């Protein structure tokens, strides 16, 4: 959510319509171009999500009152339920409800309760996609006309050309790439199965850029052996962009996504996309992707092979992708978000 928070904040600063105060955990550095343009309030560093939410519900409203905050914007799914200020919360996805078993049962129940309370108390709820908004309604969260859709966009540093391109950090030879924390709903087993065949029969490597928090990928690799997979994590934006520019394609065979930011990053860099029609992925990718089913490794191999063998198709997807990303911008997102803020501030407010 860092891309969402910092990119949106950067554009809100540019609007020069508000005095902006940012609550950040101790040790968190703001981007250098923002640090001098907002008021920064440092808060404790949290050991986990539950500790953060408890602090958010008990301490944050008092801090906000002391600083005379008029509107609290919470960009990460939860925010204060009480407090004498307007409340706007962004919900990124309802994966816990849409993909059974994707999180522990207690985590799903906790998020369900928080989402229901947020829907009741927030002055406005922002969904990052029409899909997430539809899921919110389908799961009975009572938001009514307070629900708004504001799409995300790719962050700075992505594009087809860069004079300081980090080519030296890229994998050698042809490769496909997956950009994600390796979680079960990302279909890692499908990627591993396809990677083995692409490596053995075509010499195409698979580069996975992201963490493996539950050891899902490590377990799959232990069963499969050397299948031409390179794992990277913690890479800089220039290194990530350099990989996009040289990859055969980005693969994103997820069962569900609330948005799908890597798709836009890839398309900006001229990288074709292979993904699924699940969740918000077709909403984001539009007609500029090849689509497969999440568990279909054969279809993934076939899609990659088409892009290797058919240069006309590859160029068509690149051009369609570069046209598609024009639908999304942080400037547009900030203008829409500011309009939501203004509407909330203009309405009579009841203290809670």
Automatic annotation (TrEMBL):
Source species, domain of life: Bacteria
UniProt keyword list: Plasmid, Transferase
Annotated GO biological process: lipopolysaccharide biosynthetic process
Originating gene: rfbU
CDD domains: GT4_MtfB-like (cd03809)
The Glycosyl transferase family domain, residue ranges: 174-321
Membrane-spanning intervals of the chain: none
Name of the protein this chain belongs to: Glycosyl transferase group 1
Organism: Tistrella mobilis (strain KA081020-065)
One Pfam assignment: Glycos_transf_1
Entry GO MF terms: glycosyltransferase activity
Glycosyltransferase subfamily 4-like N-terminal domain residues: 2-151
């Amino acid at each position: 959510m860092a891309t969402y928070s910092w990119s949106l904040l950067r554009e809100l600063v540019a609007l020069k319509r508000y005095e902006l105060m940012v609550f950040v955990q101790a040790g968190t550095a703001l981007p250098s171009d923002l640090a001098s343009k907002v008021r920064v309030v440092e808060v404790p560093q949290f050991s986990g999500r539950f500790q953060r939410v408890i602090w958010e519900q008990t301490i944050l409203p008092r801090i906000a009152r002391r600083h005379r905050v008029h509107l609290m914007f919470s960009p990460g799914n939860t925010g204060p339920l009480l407090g004498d200020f307007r409340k706007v919360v962004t919900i990124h996805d309802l994966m816990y409800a849409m993909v059974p078993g994707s999180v522990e049962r207690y985590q799903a129940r906790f998020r369900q309760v928080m989402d229901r309370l947020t829907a009741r108390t927030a002055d406005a709820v922002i969904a990052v996609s029409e899909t997430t908004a539809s899921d919110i309604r389908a799961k009975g969260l009572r938001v009514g006309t307070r629900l708004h859709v504001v799409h995300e966009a790719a962050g700075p540093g992505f594009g087809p050309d860069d004079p300081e391109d980090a080519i030296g950090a890229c994998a050698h030879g042809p490769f496909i790439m997956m950009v994600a924390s390796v979680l079960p709903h990302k279909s890692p087993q499908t990627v591993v199965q396809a990677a083995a065949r692409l490596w053995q029969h075509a010499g195409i490597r698979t580069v996975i850029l992201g963490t493996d928090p539950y050891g899902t990928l490590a377990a799959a690799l232990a069963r499969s052996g050397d299948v031409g997979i390179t794992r990277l994590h913690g890479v800089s934006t220039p290194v990530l962009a350099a990989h996009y520019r040289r990859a055969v394609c980005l693969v994103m065979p997820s069962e569900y996504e609330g948005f799908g930011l890597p798709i836009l990053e890839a398309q900006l860099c001229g990288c074709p996309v292979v993904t699924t029609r699940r969740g918000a992925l077709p909403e984001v990718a539009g007609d500029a992707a090849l689509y497969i089913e999440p568990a279909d490794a054969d279809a993934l191999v076939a899609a990659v092979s088409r892009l290797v063998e058919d240069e006309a198709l590859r160029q068509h997807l690149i051009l369609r992708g570069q046209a598609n990303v024009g639908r999304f911008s942080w400037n547009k997102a900030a203008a829409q978000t500011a309009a939501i803020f203004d509407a909330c501030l203009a309405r009579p407010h009841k203290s809670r």
